[in-house]
Write a structure and sequence with these properties.
With 43 residues, the chain is mostly loops. 0% of the residues lie in helices and 0% in strands.
Length: 43
């Protein structure tokens, strides 16, 4: 992954409808919460 610059950080197959976002960035759903506490929460 790192050789060609496409390292996804081990996120695996991401859904095409969800943009790549860091866990500490605001969630793209518009809730205002951090991604890790919203849609990025580990269940």
């Amino acid at each position: 992954e790192r050789a060609n610059g496409t390292n996804t950080g081990g996120a695996g197959a991401a859904s095409s409808s969800v943009p790549a976002v860091g866990r500490n960035q605001p969630c793209p759903c518009g809730s205002g919460k951090k991604y890790k506490f919203c849609h990025g929460a580990v269940r």
